[in-house]
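Notes taken during the Thursday session

The instructor put the following on the board and asked us to keep it in front of us for the whole hour. The protein is Transporter. We were told not to look anything up and to reason only from what is written here. First, the residues (271 in total):
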Amino acid sequence: MHGLTLSVHPGQKVAIVGRSGIGKSTIINLLMRLYTTPQSQDTSSPGIYLNGRAIGSIPREELRRLITVVPQDNILIRGSATDNIAYGQPRKLPGSHAEEEQRRYIREVIRLCYEASRVAAAEELLGDAPYSGTLQGLSGGQRQRVGIARAVARGGSVLVLDEATSALDEETEKRVLQQLFRSLDPNQSVIVISHRLSTLRHVDLIYVLDNPDGSGARVVESGSYDWFVAESQYLKDAGQDISDLVSNCGCSSAGVTPGFSHAALDAKGDL
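Then, after some discussion, the predicted structure tokens were revealed:
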């Protein structure tokens, strides 16, 4: 990457698009500090900043609480739907607590899982006995809905959807994304990576990555969804049939609740 600059404001939903291998998922890996980059506390210097704090200065445990990533392929543990949706949260309060406190905690976890599963259209996976059974033989779409429900239950300041709905049919995807975005805190930021036009219609801003001169990937275009389907050079150069894409997602090319802390994300410079 070279000269890559992009910003995500509190409450903003942005998409990152580009051809395969251009570096979309690499940006997420940098954001999660799976890759490291030089960092400075001076926000005018090249780096990645979350609420003005250099990513490298944020303890990893805190960073994992702030940013929730839903990948294309979700890893499910051996256990019930509730175990998977509440993954990372203990089944009971640690330490010594009264039995009634433990019961209240368990009831709250179950309530949160049911609410998250409703948002992700995965209610049928929980059933009437939330801690019974084991998730087996799920389709790709069902696994993705469990992953989205897990993200809703987990919370965070920034939600990243990395091809998170690629296995859903368009009607289910539309329902899930509408419910998901309605459930978010107004200041929660969303980053979407997707090749599907039906997914991009839900965002506020689209960043297009490319490497036109071989020096490294950077943002070459940005704009709204309406601009993207009508004017994006990326779609034209890729030979995409915009009419088919638009008709498939039911769009018009002419015009087209957990609490979270807010986040402003900035990435700039030579990463």
